[in-house]
Specification:
Layout lengths: L3 H29 L4 H21 L9 H19 L1 H6 L5 H12 L15 H16 L1 H8 L7 H8 L12 H25 L4 H12 L17 H14 L3 H9 L3 H5 L2 H24 L4 H16 L14 H13 L12 H19 L8 E2 L2 E2 L2 H27 L4 H12 L21 H15 L3 H4 L4 H4 L3
Antiparallel strand pairs: 1-2
Length: 485
Amino acid sequence: MVNFRIISKIIGSLLLIEALFMSLCALVAFSYHEDDLMAFLISLLITFGSGFTFMYMGRNADNSLSRRDAYLLVTAAWLVFSVFGMFPFLTHGCITNITDAFFESTSGFTTTGASIIDDVEILPHGILFWRSLTQWIGGLGIVFFTIAILPSLVGGSVKVFAAEATGPIKAKMHPRLTTTAKWIWSIYLILTLACVLSYCAAGMNWFEALNYAMTTTATGGFAIHNESTEYFHSPTIDYISITFQFLSGINFTLLYLSIVKMRLKALLTNSEFKLYVSVVIGATLWIMYLLLTRMGYDLEHAFRAALFQVVSFITTTGMFNEDAGTWPHITWVILGVVMYLGACAGSTSGGFKCIRGVMLLKVVRNNFRQILHPNAVLPVKINGMSIPQSKLVALFAFFTLTMLMTLVTATIMIVAGIDNTNAITIALSCVSNVGPTLGTQIGPVMSWSILPEYIKWILCPLMLMGRLEIMTVLVLFTRTFWKEN
């Protein structure tokens, strides 16, 4: 049976961590002498109190998690974080209803980046910092963060890692998972700090640099200006943003091997990385050509605009330096494809993941070979490693579910009166945790506030399932999960 005591104990500890993050925002609010200080004090008191309550309910729990416990813990932790994450918005009053507050919080923690706030520039600094911080926390995983800083708290850490990590192949850089988690979070911190310093050097102030760095390296996309990075009208800032979005879309294990271990060859010969780079180059050149021939852009502008949007969409960041909604419709198709594909597994990005793209391409290639050589044994190999049949079955199950969920959600939105292009790209955006959408009603630079409330409630679990790669959440709704044995 499910060990609710240990789950309650861990969730209580996670809530205490969330309250500590809220206290950082309270310090920001205090330093700027704005009206959101009380909102954060109330929110962190509620979160602290709830955390201690959950820990009390889980007292005397043994520190051991089964696989069933791990899957329930991960889903519950993300849901609870999103629920408590909406309190600063509600108590401050910048968002006045639960639907919108929960949507904004869920979008933040899942690093989707879709916002219902029409004018973010009127928000106080503490609230803006909280929006960025939710994305930074969710970038590598809420429970994975706990494994790094409090390894003794999560006894079944390997099972939790399997439930929360993205991609079909869970790579570890060290036999001890806690060491792996610490190294990955160290790389994440280094990337964030380097991004902060780069933005500052390019002309941002410290607050702007910190916020944009957190949402860039988390590939989240929340901005503190309505025009995102377009606000600065700076090619330098655009190229810095492109660089750190791209780096954050690479598998962090590969980054560790290439940067810390100085094994650059491991990165350059990796099949997933090669597909990632190839798609970025191909999509950029295609869109660049269209901007040059149909929109009259000059060469550098076309290159920068195309590269920024392609990297933003494939890494599922969702920042923008141009309104892609005004571009030729064929560019929407290209961006929609890279939006669904996503970057590398083991990164902060969402989407289908390039590793699955490599697996699909090799399965198709083997199928053609099998036609010519019916008796041949053709294993699927990636980077010299044979992929077991169970992983291939899971691959097609994942592909089928993402397509099915996108079609069902898009159909519901079309019935609700949303235009076809918006409906499809909104569904893709949520299941891939991208943020922007393409269409006539809601463009890539607009908020999602005009969506009906019940549509927002449909999109919230879709974002959560997209972040946890569907199976982790849906397995909870199977009969087998709740059977005693």
